[in-house]
Amino acid sequence: METTASIKRFAHDVEARVRPEIEGARKRIESAGERVTTYIKENPGKCILGAVALGYLVAKLARR
Question: pTM for the whole thing?
Fold first, then answer.
């Protein structure tokens, strides 16, 4: 029984240390997504042209 309690304590300690890091990463990813969405809305032509160019390059590389 002591082993189970020890494992539970260890898991809880790890969770307490990792959770803030995960939350911080989630917030940074959400922020980046919002910035990308804003850029796309402000510059749709550039984004479409860039996507077409990138698709062309990937197709050329995949053909080799």
Answer: 0.63
